[in-house]
Amino acid sequence: MDTSIQLKYGNSNVAVTLPSTNLLGIFEPSALPPLTNMVEDLHQSMMHPLSRPPLDEIVKPNEKIVILIDDHTRGTPTALILPEVIQVLHQANVPDHNITIMITHGTHRLCSEDEVKQKVGEEIYQQYTIVQHRCDDEENQVYLGITQRGTPVWINRIVVEADKRIGIGHIGPSPYAGYSGGLKLIVPGVASLDTINANHSMVPVGFRKAGAVDIPTRQDIDEAAAMVGIDFLIDVVLDREDRAIKFFTGDPNVVYQQGVALAKQVFEVALPQPVDIAITSAYPYDLDLYQGVRAVEYADSVVKEGGSILLIAALPEGWGDEEFHQLMKDRTKTPQHFLRDINRRNGKVTFNVLGYNLARIKQEKNLFIFTQGIPASELEEAGFNCTDNLQQGIEKLLEKHGANSQVAVFPIGSASVSKIQSLLP
Questions:
Q1: How far apart are CA 55 and CA 238, in angstroms?
Q2: Helix 193-200 vs helix 216-225: angle between axes, to the nearest 10 degrees?
Q3: Could you write out the DSSP letters of every residue in 384-395?
Q4: What are phi and psi of 21, to 5 degrees?
Q5: Phi-psi label, residue 275: left if phi above 0, alpha if psi -120 to 50, beta otherwise
Q6: Which H/E stretch holds residue 265?
């Protein structure tokens, strides 16, 4: 008997069929009920924040306010949240010309004008000053100090010189920091490239510790970002369809702690045993391969040595960055080469970190990919085995690993923090 499965592929689905005897299970984030009235829930949360007074008691008339928001790669309902925040600022007699909205890109590319409009909403786009952070704009960064782990901290001048900072983000899986959200809007969000590189050089310490927030990278983020801080944070936990489940507002540390506890209930999935094959969709981070390979990193945690990972990804923006593409095509680089490059800051650390993680995985497992977003010749240069017929590719994997091979399927792989049940605390 066969089982038919639908997997996310960009804005549509692809169907695959697996023998039921080989299918260990279909593993997805938990389907907690989304909010039925987001505006009301947000309003109530802002009226009763965690460990902080309400926002209208924090800001003062005529103060310079910067509102930090995440970028086009994240599903935060920013266009819904911003009007509620600005309404409170108006009640506190903050004039519009004192309000700056900053998109916190970290090392991501800048948004197009259409992406900015979609992110903030047409009315706010027309009425307010919107700035996109550039991590390489050294002239507009302020040095604040150095963390205990040696990260020099440069932050966007507008953020540092604001009287108050308000953050709007979401808490979800992050392969480098355990979970996004909290002070990540500051670091890497509005930090310099040098700060981001120093911080991300610690990521290899957290390799194969998916979902952990007690790792050096995350701890360093919080220490560095606290040098400037966020006065009032709004974080939302989204479900697997990017619908809001719950808002957390107030003190950034308390917001993050409580938000992560809920996010773990949503995104962490437990398997009873390791598998031979993982079939995983890069959705919802399937815009480009740089983001999409997080699905490979999460699946890696539950695949046996010698096993196979098949990534299914639309990748409409291809590699995401040509520097990342050139780095990945060098088949001579071992994990140790990537570590040296990370240490020497030879190229972007974020790319070398991902190169290190993938090199570690490729040493032990086989990587396959199904996509129309990148030519097969380029992917094969980077060590991926390509299949242009998904069903036939799966059948070949079953032949490769034998009649008794076990398969786990992750229809929303980039948001499925996968772990083996017996290894959970």
A1: 23
A2: 150
A3: PEE-SSHHHHHH
A4: -70, -25
A5: beta
A6: helix 252-267
Quick one: 202 and 277 in the same domain? no
Could you please report the per-residue DSSP string of 188-240?
TTTB-HHHHHHHHTTGGGGTT-TT-SSSHHHHHHHHHHTTT--SEEEEEEE-T
Q: Tens digits of per-residue pLDDT, 380-393?
A: 999 999 999 999 99
In the numeric block, which tokens belong to residue 334?
């071992």
Q: Give how many domains the chain has, as a whole number.
A: 2
161 is in which domain, residue-wise? 38-266
Q: Are residues 259 and 289 in the same domain?
A: no
Whether 107 and 188 have beta carbons less than 8 Å apart is answered as yes
Q: What gap in Å lies between CA 350 and CA 107, rounded to an integer?
A: 8
Segment (H or E) for 307? strand 303-312
Strand partners, 67: 101, 166
Q: Which of 20, 17, 21 is nearest to 5 (CA)?
A: 17
**pTM (2 d.p.):** 0.92
In this prediction, residue 425 has a pLDDT band, given cuts at 50, 70 and 90, of: low
Q: Are 47 and 252 in contact (CB under 8 A)?
A: no
* Residue-wise pLDDT tens digits, 269-302: 999 999 999 999 999 889 999 999 999 999 999 9
Residue 67: both structure tokens together: 């509102």
Beta bridge partners of 270: 419
C-alpha to C-alpha distance for 226 and 367, rounded to whole angstroms: 39
Sorted by sequence, the CB contacts under 8 Å of residue 242 that are 6+ apart come out as 75, 284
Q: Of 266, 287, 306, which residue constitutes the final position of a domain?
A: 266
CB 281 within 8 A of CB 412: yes
Residue 238 in tokens: 């989204």
111 is written with which tokens?
């948004």
In this structure, the dihedral spanned by the alpha carbons of residues 275, 276, 277 and 283, taken in order and rounded to 10 degrees, is 30
Sign for the CA dihedral angle at 211, 212, 215, 219 comes to: positive
Residue 184 DSSP symbol: G
